[in-house]
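In this supplementary section we document a worked example of the pipeline. Step one takes a protein sequence of length 594 as its only input; no multiple sequence alignment statistics are reported here. Step two produces a three-dimensional model, which step three serialises into structure tokens for compact storage. The input and output of this example are shown verbatim.
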Amino acid sequence: MMNKTSSATYTLSLRLGAALLILVSLLAVFNTALAGDPPKAVSSTGDYAWGLGAKPARNRSGVADAPKVSPGKLAVAAGAANSLPTKVDYTALVPPVGNQGGQSSCVGWAVGYYYKTIQEYRERGWSLGSPTSQFSPSFVYNQINEGVDAGAWPADAFDLLKNTGDVSLADFPYNVSDYLKQPAASLKSAANPYKAKSWAYLFYNPNWPPGKVPNPANTVDILRQYLASGDVFNLTIPIYNTWDYVGNTPTSVVTTPPNTSSYRGDHEITVIGYDDSLTSSDGTGAFRVVNQWGTGWGDKGFSWLSYAFITKYAEDATAMTDLIDRANLTYSVAKSNTAALNYSGQSWLSQADSSSLSGTLATSYTSGDYVDFPFYGNSIAWVGPFSQQAGVADVYLDGIFQQRVDQWREGKTSPRNLIYYRGDLPLGNHILRLVARGPVIEHCPGNWSCSPLPARGPTLVDALVVNPDYVDNTSSEIIYAFYWEHLNDAASLNVSESRSNINGSYFSYNFTGTNVAWIGTTRPNAGRADVYLDGKLVSSVELYSPAINHNQTLFSQSNLNLGSHTLQVIVRPDRHNSATDNYVSLDYLVVNTF
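The serialised model returned by step three reads:
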């Protein structure tokens, strides 16, 4: 029988043992989180365990060299941060809320199920409610988890979508108990039409732990601009108890944690909007998000995440460009004399021109006259003549200024040329506006001496082409000879450009069509190039300009015989007197038949 002293000692030993056991357990959880094996999040009701599973970009090899979305390009696409709409909401594009259960497959759900389903819905217009048109999270997660249910890097998911694609939930159903099953070769082939064209980070924070070093002050504005430009994105965040215990009302907001001790791991979610006026204990402004923990979490699976949380704790955000299946888009030509083009101003004239695509040209000398053209698609081209009698125009898309275009060219008038092209619009309804600027003198394309400055004339509109395709500089069909650099360039299409300054270096491209255009950049360190078509020298092009100008039509040739042709561009040894180098660039090519 124990005496009082021994009993007290025994009780103390039990308490110390229990405390030690709790401490060991906590350390084990903490070490597991650090090791990248995501712990399970427990719901506010305590009756269900949800998986996490995102691996932050800071831990991934090569992240510093990964593509990044340029803030400057976003400003062009969406407008300045202080001019954006106060609210953007894409909830109507979201498929039914999913549930990953206890599996660490949040990356597969956010990237595959939500993001890919939204993009294919916008491309194809099919039902969001059927598993045949919802995309499989398991097809993604099971191929990138390395055989362990320990989460995945979003970058690996985006690479899979770029290289392989995804299949429907009906074809590869989700099984919370099976993270190992691999798709058959036939399913991988079936995924080919549903690929990503490219992906890039909107931002990433290289610091550990989350919150130690806040994100740059403009991070929230970058994300707002991306949403305002027409797309959703994926976000990696640390999970604290403010996420678990968020309210279930339409205005409930996940806020910054009162302390960070409740951190359990990282989670991938999909951001589908923002509201500058929504208030919480963190202040004003929040992003709308959809989670994959079923409809019992938040407001039926949705919630808001405060701007303050993003600034202090968000780890990285990634955007994806859909690879459009061209067979599902309508290619069309709107001629200048049709009712599809809405002219405004007093000076528009219709001028007969038998060499033009339309048979007539719409012309205006008056600054401020404009033409609007509404269209549905993801790319648009303005076709018209280059001429010594042509003028300058400003191009707007969806109310946002894109660039100033100069139709003046030295020599005889050349019809049916690509004057302007934009090929990376979000699929949907858009409005192109061309504003005549009259006899404005901008620069001297094609005039190597730039003296005297040529007079300018009217803006000339032949036709507008909806959904023409392009050939990116990264295409394996373009042959590069001798020395070329393939560089990230934030202002170029798909954030890439190929350049060479070595005499005799060239690129060539075999194509079938009647029209071809070479698009690149003029800049202070640019040189000159000779252009050959089917082995014949047809033009020598000046690429020097005092300032950097992207998305310039450097060469355009129309009225080719329908058949196979070869375009070759060769770097010349000479350059403009003011040029500092001999660089020749390629952003993309456009080939058409009309």
